[in-house]
Amino acid sequence: MSAAQPRPRRPMNPTVRRIVDTAREEFASNGAAGVNLATIAARASVARQLIYYYFRSKGGLHLAVAQENALDVIDDLLSRDYGELAPRAALVAMIGDMFAQISQTISNGVGLHQCLEVQGARGGVRSLLRSAQPAVSAKLAAILRRGAADGGFQSGVDADLFLATAASMMYGCLLNEAVISAATDQDLRTPDALARWLDRTTRILLASIDASAPAHPYVRP
User: Fold this and answer.
1) Among 112, 134, 141, 177, which residue's beta carbon has the most beta carbons within 10 A?
2) In the CATH hierarchy, which top-level class contains the domain 67-209?
């Protein structure tokens, strides 16, 4: 199974690209609350009014940056070739790659979930996810089929539902680290604790589709 080609991105004119790239650095360094449009304008060598012209608001620029980061996650997954790995190892690798990319976008201050906080952005987020998910789900489905064929995984696992479950477990850990840290006495801001959480998440996901387990829950009604 060869790596899929990254999705083509909507072309940006050089000025918009410069603004978005500068904004990505600013959001990563300062977080959403600490971003200043005047600083972005100065660093990108554009008038502040031009940011409003292209993005309408700080929220609109935030959305553009979050979408670029989401496309990075998708492109990274599509560029990887899991076909040389045994199904179980391939699934572990894909889950790990997802976790690493999602963790990175959140630690940079701009995750796809934050698009939903931008007024009027839900339609754009939904469109982005619907256009991107089939390719990622197809890569996952190929691994699940191989695992079912060799007797390690249960058959009939819906890749979209499995992918959504995995993503929700990852986002839940990364966005609620204070609650989880308090409940488990583990500081999820540390690499070791995050690695343990990823291992726990991976074990749960694998156990849920193991051939010896009860019927899996990844079935559409």
Assistant:
1) 112
2) mainly alpha
